[in-house]
Amino acid sequence: MTMKNERFPVDLRIVGSVLVLSVLVAAATGVLVRQSNAEPSAAAPASSQTLEKFVLFNEKPVMNRTEVGEPGPSHGEIISWGATFSEKRGGAVLGRCDGTQIVTHTLEQNADITHRMTTVEFDWENSDDSLVVAGSHPYPSDSLHSKTTISRAVIGGTGRFIGARGEIVSTPLPSGEYQHEITLVK
């Protein structure tokens, strides 16, 4: 069944599939992030675990918004984006990061904010290496980009990152690029 509005045709089967995926990712993220009652910043790996830390930068992403229902931010709206990434700003391209966001909550009392469930994959070129990141974050309703730092869970990976878990802290830069500080628990 396809629901059409004046701007975009939307196949409700695709929207349903994406929403189911988001619920599964949200459940996995909640399990990985909330393992204790301690404050998230106070959590430390067990003594037998080590941390691997590195930083990536992605170019300004190309973004696309697919509205569902009335024009403007609404529950179920899908935002997709993609960009190349490197180890330093303007450095040699290592691969692509591609993401999807689904508006999961709009605050009626504060129409300036929407919450978006996001899934991102960092995919290294010419290898099987990838990292998968997920989490929810408030965004300005009038912008596709965040204006604040975002913390999300690393929920998996492939290649040298198989079984990865950890955290990514993404900071929007004035240029439209993003800096990602990645901490993996090994």
Write down the CATH topology.
AOC barrel-like
Count of alpha/pi helices: 1
Distance between the termini: 45 Å
Quick check: average pLDDT? Answer: 78
Tally the structural domains: 1
Give Rg in angstroms. Answer: 17 Å
- Secondary-structure content class: mainly beta
Percent helix: 10-25%
Low-confidence stretches: 1-41
The geometry reads as globular
Major sheet? 8 strands, antiparallel, barrel
Number of strands: 11
Q: Which range does the strand content fall in?
A: over 45%
How do the strands line up in the largest sheet? 3-5-6-7-8-9-10-11
- Relevant CATH superfamily: Allene oxide cyclase-like
Kindly report the oligomeric state of this protein. single chain
Q: Which CATH architecture would you pick? A: Beta Barrel
Secondary-structure element string: EEHEEEEEEEEE
What would CATH call the class?
A: Mainly Beta
Can you tell me about this structure?
The protein is mainly β. It has a single domain, classed as Allene oxide cyclase-like (AOC barrel-like), CATH 2.40.480. It is built from one helix and eleven strands. The protein has one helix at residues 12-33; strands at 2-4, 9-11, 51-58, 62-66, 78-86, 95-107, 110-124, 130-140, 150-158, 166-172, 178-185. The strands form two sheets. An eight-stranded antiparallel beta barrel has the order 3-5-6-7-8-9-10-11. Strands 1-2 form a two-stranded antiparallel ribbon. Strand 9 (150-158) and strand 10 (166-172) form a beta hairpin. Mean pLDDT is 78; it is low at 1-41.
